[in-house]
Structures are given as C-alpha cells and as structure tokens.
C-alpha cells in the first residue's frame, strides 16, 4: 500500500502538472540529444573557454530542454506558451553561439554540423508546438485539472 504522500506526489506529477506528457514530445527528446551533442562539441574547445563560450553554450542548450519541461508543468496554456517561447529563444542562442565558436576558431563547420542539424529540427518542432498551443488558446481550451475529494484528502479512505 502506498502512503498518502506517495499518492499525492504521483497525482501531482501526473494529473495536475502533466509531467508524463512533456517526455513524450519529440521536441523534448531532440533537445536532450542536442545537449549531448553540445557537450561533445565544447569538449574540444580550448581550456580558456571553459567558463566563457563553452559554459554559455551548455547553459543555452540545457535551457531549451528545461523550458519545455517547465512549460508543461505550468497551470495554464498561456504560461506554457511563454516557456515555449523562452525555449525558442534559447534555441536561437545555441545557433548563434555555435556560429561564434566557428568564427573564433574553436570549432569547424564539420564539428558543429550535427548540432546545427538537431538545433534546426528543434526550431521547426518548437514552432509547430507554439502554433498548436496558440490555436488551443484561441479555441478557449485550458489545462484540465481533476478535482476530487480524494485528491484533497477528504475522502474517508484518506482520513
């Protein structure tokens, strides 16, 4: 038998925050792939860039993944949309910083080719998800949160 806390935590993540849904998104999965590729690319940067461009590229890449997840943990579609736009901003940041890495001679076009391809795919997927979320908002849809007495601990089973 699960404890009340375990039950509440599971309910919170699955029903209220919708945590299952974001992990199924192709854009989230691709952003994780981009994170791995960015870490591979920056591992070749000179040590002097450890806390500069290298660090910023890693943070921007991780920000894409994190903002997608955080947006799906929000209580409204408008908040979700705001985080999807932040993810897109981070995607542009990664693209720019990869270009700068080449401009400064820290990487070659060949070094960043895979990262750019993944980043481009993420941009297209994010744009589609943003359009879909805007359409949901225009249709008046909202994130549904089931509310029963059991969730709030008022059913006799929980007392």
What does this entry look like structurally?
With 159 residues, this protein is an all-alpha fold. It has 6 helices and no strands. The longest helix is centred in the C-terminal third of the chain and has 30 residues. It starts with a helix and ends in a 21-residue tail after the last helix. The C terminus is likely disordered.
Task: Supply database-style keywords.
70% helix, single chain, elongated, disordered C terminus, 159 residues, mainly alpha
Mean pLDDT: 85
Counted beta strands: 0
Regions with little confidence, pLDDT below 50 for 5+ residues: 9-14, 146-159
Give the DSSP E fraction (strand runs of 2 or more residues): under 5%
Query: What general form does the structure show?
Result: elongated
Can you summarize this structure?
The chain is mainly alpha-helical and 159 residues long. 70% of the residues lie in helices and 0% in strands. The longest helix is centred in the C-terminal third of the chain and has 30 residues.
């Amino acid at each position: 038998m699960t404890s009340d806390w375990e039950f509440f935590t599971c309910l919170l993540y699955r029903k209220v925050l919708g945590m299952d849904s974001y992990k199924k998104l192709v854009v989230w999965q691709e952003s994780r792939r981009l994170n791995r590729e960015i870490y591979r690319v920056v591992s070749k940067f000179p040590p002097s860039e450890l806390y500069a461009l290298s660090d910023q590229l890693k943070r921007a890449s991780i920000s894409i993944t994190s903002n997608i997840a955080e947006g799906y943990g929000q209580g409204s579609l408008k908040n979700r949309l705001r985080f999807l736009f932040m993810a897109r901003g981070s995607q542009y940041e990664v693209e720019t910083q990869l270009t700068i890495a080449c401009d400064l001679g820290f990487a070659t076009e060949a070094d960043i080719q895979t990262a750019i391809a993944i980043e481009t795919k993420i941009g297209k997927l994010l744009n589609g998800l943003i359009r879909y979320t805007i359409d949901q908002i225009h249709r008046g849809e909202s994130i549904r949160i089931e509310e029963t007495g059991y969730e709030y601990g008022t059913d006799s089973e929980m007392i």
